[in-house]
Structure formats: C-alpha cells, structure tokens
Description:
Residues 8-68 form the HTH tetR-type domain. By secondary structure, the chain is mostly helical.
Amino acid sequence: MSTARSNPDVRARLIEATIRLLATTGPSEVKARSVSSEAGLSTMGVYTYFGGVPELLQSVADEGLRRLAAAFELVPDTDDPIADLCSMALAHREVARRNPHLYDLMFGLSIHGRYSLSWGTAAPVSSERSPAFKAAYSQLVKACTRLVDGNYVRKIDPSLIAMQLWSAVHGFVMLELADHFADVADPALKILVPMCNNLVVGLGAVRESVESSTATAIAEAASLEGRSARDRTQKSGKARAK
Length: 242
C-alpha cells in the first residue's frame, strides 16, 4: 500500500466529509469532487486515498458500523440482560436517527440514491461480513447468551435470538425513518419496546418481569438524553459567549 493511501488522518477527513454530506445533502451528492471539496482536498483526494468512490463508501459504511458498536459498548453489562437488550435496541435506533442516509449505507440499502440490492440478490454470508459489522453484532449475541444462560428464556441458540431481535429492531428503524409512524406520539415507547417485549415473552420470559426490566431501560435512556441535552445547551452557550 502506498504512503498516501495509508495516511490515516487524510482518510479520516474524507470519511467524515462523506458522513457530513450524507447528513446534509443525501447520497446522490456523494461524489469524488464534492467529498474532496468538503474535506479541503483536491478533486483527486478520493482516488489518491481510497482508489475510488465505491471503496470510500465501504469505509464510510464500516465507520457507521463502528459507531453502532460504540453505542452498544456504552450499554453496561448489568445483572438484567433484558434491560440491557432494551437499551441496545434504543441505542440502535438513536444511531440510525442521527444520520439516516449513513444507516442505509451501513446495511447496503442505498448507494448514490438508489437501492443497491435487487430482488434475488443473495446477501453476503456471515463469514464475508466486515469486522466492523461483526464488532457490533457480536455484542448483541453476547447479550442474548446472557439471556439464555440466566434462564430468562427457554434454552434456545442465542445466535437465533439475536437474529430475531436484530430483524425486529432493524425493521422498526427502517419504517420509522420512512415516516410510517409519523402519527404515533412516541414510536419507541409504543411500538419498538412492546414489540421486543412480546418477542422475549414468546421465548419464555415472564411478561411482568420483562416489562419491569424494559421500564428501567427506558428511564435510564430518558435520563441519559436529558443529560446530553443539557450538555449540548451548555456547549452552545459557551460557544456564543466566545
């Protein structure tokens, strides 16, 4: 690999520039010229450091998955895996809401404004998924393993439980991002959490216990959001003061 191609600082600038463009203009405007300009580089920046736009987009998708993994890592392993799984579901949703176009890219749904997979196209098998994907998904499997080992549900392969929860949360997120729940006052509280509760109860957990656990996770998420909002307000005030 050339010295230029391996420069981590410049590569990071191009990745961050692409993420900003996805958030502000959408995938159709992610082009070599616009990304390089956003990063403060010459037009050839994308080709010099990645080889082309497709390679850049793969790196951007991996960065998005690393952010999802980081959000999962912020959820502590408590003595209540049901609450932890609920917290992970809420964290998954929050990552998607921060940059919906980045989320689409992370899961191979949209590149340059069009769907990238056609009907009949096989999804990559597990062994072909990126290390960034595995870093995020493995944390969900670990939490599901604690769920089974703690006898909260029937003795079921934790990887299958993880697939079910992953599918449920991802499906909810995609529908919410497409405004299918626009008429619902609090989609996470009224749709996402009850859906996950029902899934875990169907696996053998006691409903009263599940609902108590997820209520704890919801309260913690609300408290965290309140602290984050105060921090943002304080930072904004300091910036204006300067």
